[in-house]
Amino acid sequence: MSAIRVTQRKSRNGCDQRQLDTLRSLGLRRIGHTVEVKDTPQIRGMLHKVRHLVEVDGS
Questions:
Q1: How far apart are CA 39 and CA 1, in angstroms?
Q2: Contact of 50 with 22, CB cutoff 8 Å
Q3: Which of 5, 19, 40, 48 would suit a FRET pair with 58, their CA atoms being 20 to 30 Å apart?
Q4: CATH fold of the domain at 3-57
Q5: pTM of the prediction?
């Protein structure tokens, strides 16, 4: 599988608990933090839930 680079670009303040849990599951901890995750349907769904907070490269 290929990898996707995900960077958190906006603050978690004001997010509901589901979005906070999704960011934590992706491995994102702070603004500007970048992680590489596998490109799977489950990860794509997680990225869709927090698409307003993150920037995705490699998709």
A1: 6
A2: yes
A3: 19
A4: Ribosomal Protein L30; Chain: A, (3.30.1390)
A5: 0.90
